[in-house]
Design a protein that fits this description.
Elements: E1 2-5, H1 9-20, E2 27-31, H2 38-48, E3 52-56, H3 63-77, E4 82-85, H4 97-103, E5 109-113, E6 121-122, H5 126-143, E7 155-158, H6 162-167, H7 176-187, E8 192-196, E9 199-200, H8 211-231
Helix pairs in contact: 1-2, 5-8, 7-8
Length: about 230
C-alpha cells in the first residue's frame, strides 16, 4: 500500500492502527520532507512493524511526483502483486480495502467511488460537494471516461499496470495526476472497475489543495481531450 504524506504527524498513528485492524499489507509511506516530524512517526512504526516502509523525499513536490517515485521503488524491489493507494488524512476508510481487493479478482484497476451509489461523502459543505461532483462530470465530458469518480485517490491495481503508469505522458504534480493515470490506464485497455466507499472529510491537519493545484486540475481534462484528438 502506498501512502503519500506531508504534515500528517497527527494522522499517521491512527491511520496505521485502522489499517492493521483490516489487513497486514506492506505499507510504504512517501514523505515529502514534512517539517512537522511525520517521518519520525513513521520510523517509530517501522521499528515495531517490519512491514512499514518509509520513502523519504527531500521536499514537497506534489502528489504525482510522490507516487511516481513510489511506483519506481515498487518496480525495482519487485514482489508486489497488488498495489493500493490511499490518503493519509483518514478520509479514506481502511474498512473498504477488502472490497477493493476482492474487485481486483475481476479488474486490473479498481476505484473506490464516492458517487457510484448516489453520494457517499460525510462532512463536506454543499459547495465543496457540488464542486467535486461537477468536476467529475466535466472530466467525463471532455475525456470520454465512463467512471463515476475519476478523481478518487483510493484505488488498487495489479502491479502489471506499473509500466503503463510510468511510461505515460503524465506530468501533473497535484491531484490531476489521478485523472491522468486513470485516463492512460483506460486508453491502454485496462479493465477498470469501481466499488462504493464512504469518504469522510479530514478531522486533523489542513487540505493540500493550492490555487496552482486547482488550476492544474481544471486544465488537465482539456489537455487529455486534445491529446486524444491529436493521436486520432
Amino acid at each position: 500500500m502506498l501512502i503519500p504524506t506531508y504534515n500528517e504527524a497527527l494522522n499517521v498513528g491512527p491511520l496505521y492502527n485502522s489499517i492493521r485492524e483490516q489487513c497486514d499489507f506492506h505499507l510504504m509511506f512517501i514523505d515529502d520532507g514534512s517539517p512537522d516530524g511525520t517521518a519520525l512517526k513513521i520510523e517509530e512504526l517501522a521499528r515495531k512493524d517490519k512491514r512499514v516502509l518509509l520513502l523519504r523525499r527531500g521536499r514537497k513536490e506534489g502528489l504525482g511526483n510522490a507516487y511516481r517515485d513510489a511506483f519506481r521503488r515498487v518496480r525495482e524491489e519487485g514482489g508486489w502483486d497488488r498495489i493500493f493507494m490511499m490518503d493519509a488524512d483518514l478520509s479514506h476508510q481502511p474498512v473498504h480495502l477488502s472490497a477493493i481487493d476482492d474487485a481486483l479478482e475481476d479488474h486490473v484497476l479498481v476505484l473506490g467511488s464516492r458517487y457510484i451509489q448516489g453520494v457517499s461523502v460525510l462532512n463536506w459543505s454543499i459547495l465543496r460537494l457540488n464542486l467535486s461532483y461537477s468536476a467529475n462530470k466535466y472530466i467525463r465530458l471532455l475525456t470520454g471516461m465512463p467512471f463515476s469518480d475519476c478523481t478518487s485517490g483510493f484505488r488498487g491495481f495489479h502491479s502489471s499496470l506499473i509500466p503503463v503508469l510510468l511510461s505515460s505522458t503524465s506530468n501533473a504534480s497535484g491531484y490531476a495526476f489521478l485523472v491522468e493515470t486513470l485516463f492512460d490506464a483506460w486508453k491502454a485497455g485496462a479493465d477498470v472497475g469501481e466499488v462504493p466507499i464512504v469518504f469522510v472529510e479530514r478531522r486533523m491537519g489542513s487540505s493540500k489543495v493550492s490555487p496552482g493545484v486547482f488550476m492544474e486540475s481544471l486544465l488537465t481534462p482539456l489537455k487529455l481531450r486534445l491529446r486524444s484528438l491529436f493521436r486520432t
